[in-house]
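Q: Could you fold this chain for me?
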Amino acid sequence: MDTNALMMPVECDVRVFDELARLLGGSVEEGTLDLVVPRAVVDELEKLSSGGSEEAVAASVGRDLADRCRTVDTTASYADDAVVELSDGSDYVVTNDSPLRRRLLDRGVPVVSRRGRNTLAITEP
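A: Sure. Below is the predicted structure, expressed as structure tokens.
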């Protein structure tokens, strides 16, 4: 999961975990849906969460949601690079970031992103 995926509940009114359960099956709460967040994404959310702007509120909520995921260290310090580093094509990446999405699809990684008003869909490479 990347930064904007975790901010979608506030910014786009998307219930990310519910949508992922619908698309992929399983449940975060029951531990049958393993969601991974790079440490660089958590760091970015922490930086963005200071202040009172809507972005800061979304980042704060995203940071709380990240606590429900497994945090993984990478060699990359930039969040998008960390997401790419972790992607190997066998799992999905959740992002609403167009440039990152293109990078992932070019690498053969399926991407879950927002479709419609508040739903998610899978794009296969």
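A (continued): The first helix runs from residue 3 to 11.
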